[in-house]
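User: Show me an example of a complex going from sequences to structure tokens.

Assistant: Sure. Here are the input components:
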Amino acid sequence: MRTTGQRIGLTAFLIGFALFVAILPLSRYVLTDKVLSETIQKEQLEDVRMATASMQGNVYASSFSFVGDYRAAIAQLNEGFKRRNENNRLVQDYAFPVTKAASTGFFPDNSGLFFWLILVLCVGGAFLYILPEPRTLPGIKNNGIYQDPATNRGWIGVVVCGFLIGFYVLLYFFPEYMTNWVLLFDPLSQLLNGGPASQWFVYGTLYTLVILVMGVRMLIKYRHSRYQQFRTLSVMFFQTVFAFLIPELLAFFHQPAQDLKNMWPLDYSFYFDYRIDEKIKAGTFGIFLLVWGTALWLLGVPILTYFFGKRWYCSWVCGCGGLAETLGDPYRQLSDKRLGAWKLERIVVHSVLVFAVVMTVLVLYTYWSGQPSVLGFLDSYGIRSAYGSAIGAVFAGVLGTGFYPVFGSRVWCRFGCPLAAYLGLVQRFKSRFRITTNGGQCISCGNCSTYCEMGIDVRWYAQRGQDVVRSSCVGCGICSAVCPRGVLNLENDSTTSRRTDPGPIVLGNNSFRIQQ
Amino acid sequence: MKHLIIIGNGIAGITTARHVRQQDSTVRITVISAESDHFYSRTALMYIYMGHMTYAHTKPYEDGFWTKNRIDLLRGYVEQVDTSGKRIRLADGQWLNYDVLVLATGSVSTTFDWPGLSASGVQGLYGLPDLERMEQFTQNIDRAVVVGGGLIGVELAEMLRSRHIGVTMLVRDPHYWSSTLPAEEGKLVGRHLLRHGVDLRLETELKEIQARPDAADPSGRVRAVVTNTGEEISCQFVGLGIGVTPNVAFLKNSGVELGKGILVNEYFETNVADVYAIGDCNEFRQPILGTDGALRKPIEQIWYTGRMHGETLARTLCGSRTAYRPGVFFNSAKFFDIEYQTYGTLNAQLTDDEQTYYWEHPSGEQCLRINYRTTDQSVVGIHALGIRLRQAVCDRWIQDRTPFPNVVSQLRQADFNPEFSESFTDQLTGHAPARSPDRRKGWFHRLFSATH
């Protein structure tokens, strides 16, 4: 039952959120000389200025008509270059920076006001909603989850899903239509890295903010469980410091911006030519970044996963995991538990791992040899851009996060993440980690399976008295927390003591003693 | 055996079916249930009402599992068992012939002859129909009365409180669940119930249920209960949690001998050849002893004993006649937020040869009790509230008659709490375990060390 404070909070949040959406179409767009000279490279400025002469001075009411006219003008210009075989003069797509710089009117003039208004309404409203929770007693808080349209794939879930998908499609494929959001974050970006905001800065900031706010919610929800609290604090810390602040500060000091906890193959562009060159150019520090990033996956993964299981990364450090464990927590129960989903998961996630490895090998081959084509038909540039849009954008973003309220919070981690697949192989075959089941105490209620975000049918193991040793388990510990009978426990012990066959525990006859 | 018919698709019946199929690929297996199309976990009923899960989540096997394993599921109510003709009759008139019949019909909620019992909004909690009725009769109500201070009573209270319905709980005894819990534990749970807003009335019994009959509902909707103290408590729902009774009424004239339940020997054999009874519905003629020498109850109404019955019977049905010989007793429950685990024999009242050790956390929400024999100090029972214990370790201590001092000094081995949990073993005042080199040094040390 919501308190008055919570109702006020929810209202404030919804107003802030509505305002955030409402500012998208709020600018007018005027292409001026100043806009072009700020955004276009000098050697192309004259060409672009000539081509867009008819647009200059026009006031566009929407970004659609503005971008449409601008793109048409540039296309015409490039058409001419192609006809004359002047391919070196082709103008790339400047639609995003041009649109952003051309924004004018009430909103761009007052974007600071909107920034604070939205921030205070959304974050303040969220906290008003979250903070009164400690009035209830500590314990598992899953009442009403399957009766609430926000968390049972009801209409609220569908609306949120629609928004998230729209957001990711804009972010990855049409950033020129979300320039008003980017304008909001320009001052913060100036402060942190000394430059204007990009759509990625907006994404990174929102991502961190969401993890922090929803992390506080998680800390309160699981205030009876130290494991959950430490784990949540850990993902909040790594997101804020490692994924957000350090890269921005590195950029501020003109160093290669890198998330020091992200690693290949999740960070699939780590070995792309421009990122290697950038590091080599940066000298000793750049070389350190290259060695560090390589050591992380080459040594860090096998060693730490051997001792702790893949949870050391997936539910304590990783940014994708961090979002899933905070923003995704209300949706964890929606993962698909069917056997068919498990079969699909194994095929797809390992295929992505193979794809990532092959793509990286080809990219490195091209880097060393200068040959873009391998074996005559594999084009490393084509393959890397296919990976980037199909896996990096569509799978990880649109599918992975957009569908939180429908498919649960770990779709990407379970079906798509090549690093998770690699960590999982170590966890499955050479690790001290397992979820121990406590003898015959399981009552097959199904809470563990329901709340497993990775779709593991935990109950299937628990009711057989068998340890859960699964490559996909991220060790979030929620199955253990929701178990009403204290049956499940996350443990590290010698690799040989993992019981992967059913324990003959339940009969209790002399010949079927509880296995020690 | 050509055709095995199992009446009841609960944990006992289904375990039999699965284990017979594992050992015998040819026998035809039919499982009949009046309640549901598929096996579901009865223990999770409360979580459906509370919105933690849906009915689908409570099914431990996917629907395709039964076809794949050629276990025929039949929805129907068995009205008559004709043991001389080896056949049964369903409510729709259909007769089915069996070679072997397994009765696994479970329980029904116990009731007494209270006036007004038939009022609508008065019910127990045992199966899916109960859940449906409860859903219907608790819409938009503000007060309910729960009768009975046992496991179902506390479940009913938790379910109702999850929907912010006021709950008055009538408990006959001076503290909660006094048939099983010693006074300290009973009081601990009682305090927790109060914290959750349950109006706990100890030493209070139900006398009468008052209803408000009208044209649409001649027996009337419940409007109040009257207690033995004469107090009238107005309410719109009454939940009965005073226990369950074997569901055997349909066997009255079948020739199968009945006591409170279906009478069986240690092989689950009834007085009629080829008819067996397992799970909640049976009653052992001779007392069954656990492997630790402790006496088991003649009627065991526990989830895992149903499973053990089913697994043991499956061995007998498949040719190796196996007696039921359970190990060290164990059980568990959860009272709102407090988990409870028990191992061995832990009497609410100490016997002459027993001594007890009790530790309670200063917060008053966690405790541990160890009962041991005065004669040789050997441990007979361990239970805990708010603390998770490792069954394999507790089981071994009790089975091996480990002396109490050894158990206390090795208590860390039985710690099954999640990582980083407060270390309760250090807090057992007066019995602090002796420092040994491998003693837990904290979470960092524990991360790297073997846990048992």
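The lines above are the inputs; the final block is the predicted structure for all two components together. Strands of chain A lie at 28-30, 59-60, 103-104, 373-374, 378-379, 433-437, 488-492.
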